């Protein structure tokens, strides 16, 4: 796999040293693809998007295979912050309404809210009840001006907002904020493995360690070649998000923009440290900056904080970002300043030039589907996108996909320069955060 970041980012043989890997029970790995197989739909990428698409296809009676280059959950789906929110874009509400109209905006938000509830139900019904935490998300205002903007926001399309007065979140520097429902925390690796189990129960073939290295046309369909075998299918779905490899299918080159997100998890907090963030309970939270921090008190009493930073993903950058996460914890949560980080890892989140997801079929080749670009908020979005795409493959019109999710993001000029674009974007966000 090859992309614009440091080669180590794409090395699927490297274990992700996350808290999730350390705390998940062992799981029966289905093993790589071997030999030639034929199926209706071949899906590249075994994260939430690819698996949700396969599950929905299975529910509709359509057979599929899911091929992933790494272990199941090796991608972002097994190593994220586990914060289950709703929207997966990087635009303001007003910008979305201007671009797509109120009706499509409403359809999008309602569908994301419904997906959020569906994920909770899935967890409850599939042995993951113990990894659901909380029933809302805290959004903390980083400035007085942002707090005023939040006061004006309205509950709509199934999203419920409750004002959080400034003195109700002691232990963090903020200007109050809002509580957003629905929202909750989960163990992301257990979730992606449970999705793989569900897909297999529906007859889907799921093959980790099966990197697709060649994608060729075969009659009216496609043939995907991996090290141990090949899959021939009527349709192909690309669900590789930020790991979309350059050169596998030139139609997708240069559209996904990887932005690195870094996560630190501390040792188990002391009683006193825990008391300082008692207001958070088991709910996840984030601040309102564009270069936000996101955080959770985990069921084991450890504290998780994630933040953006670094543009290439090199080893040196990792060491720097580990220190930066520690410093951010001390700055935002002074009572936790002594809680050292025991687990640190990172991965790319996927942005696009349109700042919205990319779900649909290629206009000139409807046998190729794509489902990617969740802008750092993909637990809900990727599963929603995967399921909607499956319904389109099964015969629904692409209009079935709400407009903010639909379509293919534009290709960037000089895609090799993506890390530079991201560096510039992070700089602009830093300035806009300081001014807002
Ligand atoms: C550090 C971090 C924190 C995050 N925190 C949150 C959060 O708290 N809440 C939230 O909602 N979202 C969060 N996200 C985003 C979320 O994790 C992603 O949006 C989501 O997991 C994307 O799912 P996916 O299935 O589209 O992609 P992925 O899970 O990344 O799966 C793509 C897969 O494609 C595979 N692949 C690539 N090329 C090939 C090939 N040639 N052949 C076969 N397989 C291939 C890769 O191996 C990879 O496993 C976070 C992401 C990161 C990195």
What does this structure look like?
With 436 residues, the protein is α/β, with parallel strands linked by helices. Helix content is 30%, strand content 25%. The chain is built from ten helices and 18 strands. The strands form three sheets. Strands 1, 2, 8, 9, 10, 11, 17 and 18 form an eight-stranded mixed sheet that branches. The chain has an eight-stranded mixed sheet with strand order 5-6-4-13-14-15-12-16, with helices on both faces. A hairpin with a 2-residue loop joins strand 9 and strand 10. Helix 2 packs parallel to helix 6 and helix 2 runs parallel beside helix 9. It is globular and about 65 Å long. 50% of the residues are buried. The mean pLDDT is 95. Bound molecules: flavin-adenine dinucleotide (FAD). Flavin-adenine dinucleotide (FAD) binds next to helix 2, strand 12, strand 16 and helix 9.
Rg over C-alpha atoms, rounded to the nearest angstrom: 21 Å
Assign the structural class, choosing from mainly alpha, mainly beta, alpha/beta, alpha+beta, or little secondary structure.
alpha/beta
Q: Report the average pLDDT across residues.
A: 95
Record field, number of beta strands: 18
The helicity comes to 25-40%
Number of helices: 10
Basic shape: globular
């Amino acid at each position: 796999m090859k992309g614009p970041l440091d080669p180590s980012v794409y090395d699927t043989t490297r274990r992700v040293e996350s808290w999730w890997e350390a705390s998940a029970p062992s799981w029966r790995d289905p093993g790589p693809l071997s030999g030639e197989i034929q199926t209706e739909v071949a899906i590249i990428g075994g994260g939430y998007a690819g698996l949700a698409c396969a599950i929905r296809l299975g529910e509709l009676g359509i057979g599929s295979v899911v091929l992933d280059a790494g272990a199941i959950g090796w991608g972002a789906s097994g190593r994220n912050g586990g914060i289950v929110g709703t929207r997966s874009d990087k635009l303001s509400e007003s910008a979305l309404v201007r671009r797509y109209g109120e009706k499509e905006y409403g359809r999008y938000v309602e569908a994301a809210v419904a997906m959020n509830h569906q994920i909770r139900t899935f967890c409850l019904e599939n042995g993951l009840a113990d990894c659901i935490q909380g029933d809302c998300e805290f959004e903390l205002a980083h400035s007085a001006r942002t707090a005023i903007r939040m006061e004006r926001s309205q509950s709509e399309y199934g999203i419920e907002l409750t004002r959080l007065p400034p003195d109700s979140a002691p232990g963090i520097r903020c200007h109050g904020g809002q509580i957003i429902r629905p929202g909750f925390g989960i163990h992301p690796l257990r979730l992606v493995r449970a999705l793989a189990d569900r897909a297999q129960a529906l007859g889907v073939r799921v093959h980790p360690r099966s990197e697709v290295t060649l994608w060729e046309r075969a009659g009216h369909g496609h043939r995907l070649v991996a090290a141990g075998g090949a899959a021939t299918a009527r349709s192909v779905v690309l669900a590789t998000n930020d790991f979309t490899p350059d050169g596998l299918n030139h139609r997708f080159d240069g559209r996904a923009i990887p932005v690195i997100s870094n996560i630190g998890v501390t040792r188990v907090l002391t009683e006193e440290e825990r008391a300082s963030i008692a207001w958070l309970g088991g709910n996840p939270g984030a601040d309102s900056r564009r270069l936000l921090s996101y955080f959770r008190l985990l069921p084991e009493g450890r504290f998780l904080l994630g933040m953006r930073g670094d543009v290439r993903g090199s080893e040196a950058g990792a060491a720097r970002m580990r220190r930066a996460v520690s410093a951010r914890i001390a700055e935002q949560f002074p009572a936790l300043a002594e809680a050292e980080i025991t687990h640190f890892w990172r991965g790319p989140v996927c942005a696009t030039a349109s700042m919205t997801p990319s779900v649909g079929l290629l206009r000139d080749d409807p046998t190729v589907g794509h489902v990617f670009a969740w802008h750092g908020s993909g637990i809900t979005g990727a599963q929603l996108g995967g399921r909607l795409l499956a319904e389109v493959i099964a015969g629904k019109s692409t209009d079935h996909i709400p407009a903010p999710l639909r379509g293919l993001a534009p290709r960037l000029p000089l895609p090799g320069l993506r890390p530079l674009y991201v560096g510039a974007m992070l700089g602009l966000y830093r300035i806009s955060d300081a001014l807002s």
